[in-house]
Write a structure and sequence with these properties.
Length: 415
Amino acid sequence: MTTTEPRLFDVESLRTEFPILQTRINGDIPLVYLDNAASTQRPQQVIDTITVAYEQQYANVHRGIHWLSELSTDLFENARESVQRLLNARRSSEIIFTSGTTASINLVARSWGDANLKVGDEILLSEMEHHSNLVPWQQLALRTGCRLRFLPVTDDGLLDLETLDELLTDRTRLVSIVAISNVLGTINPIKMLVQRAHAAGALILIDAAQSAPHEPIDVQDLDADFLAFSGHKMLGPSGVGVLHGREAILEEMPPFLGGGSMIHRVTLEGFEVADLPSKFEAGTPPIVSALGLATAIDYLNQVGFDAILQYEQQLTEKAHQLLTDIDGLRILGPSPGQKGGIVSFVVDGVQANDLAMMLDEQGIAVRAGHHCAMPLHARLGVSASLRASFYFYNTTEEVEKLADGVKRALRLFRR
């Protein structure tokens, strides 16, 4: 893990480094941004990195022999090493740059899945998965005839681990599970699931889209086979994500996309595949986005993941305290001690979209809908929910504004 010295955690000082948080809307109302599970905002340092890259450093990487290409290549590979340090990966060749978590999971499904799965094989998922960790496996099942099985979710939003012995069998080839639910905020027992998957002879993929921005990850300690996350959910640019894979497994996997960069040699008769990580990075990679992600990682390391986790826990507890006092409001998922900085809720007799629009008029940005988790909402018996999701730059005052905003909106609805 990185040894960057953390800075003093001062939320008001940190907020000044995020230009968009100074925005005022709807007649000079301060913006309250509580949609961080969808995408976070960026500090000036990340914005500056992107600007400087395009103004002074940009060229295509790896193939050029001129000075600018070599500079861009060095910066791009340095960014890969930043991700390696973030995850404590064994080597940088285990870090594959993709466009995001969705692309990372699809890469595994198309490459490892198509090459290894057949009729009779099983993949174990859960009922709380994001569509991006569900649809690629459904597509794989259609192509190969493998079967999908699902860990149930309890009424209080936890994985029903009592069913694990029944569902995890010698037919299970892969477990693919979310570390933190994007709807419920539930923190799943990932290390235990890794151990159980391996004991059953299965590989495991961790969807870390909602965990990588908020907590330290050590892939060597975790011992997962694959791990995926997105840059835009952790202060980085959109369009860049990461797949970490165990080197021996990546070496055996066929390339998913074909074209430039992923080849060593091409003739009219065929091609030879390049070494890792180029093997899985066909075409021009997300060069500038990767540089922005590296700066975002540096920034998060300076703030300190332990401080981030502790502070967001306080915000979540405050939100639970204030929202549970509202008549007719029901929070989905577990108690604050079992979840990250996500609070999804429904209100009796009020559509989530209508309430979200009323909050938006008060300058409060939240997410309404199924949050790309339709099966989970069906399991919970609701068609949509309202989601407030926190990051370290949010404040207790903003949580109070959320609760007051819901109360104000409900008074109007109930007149």
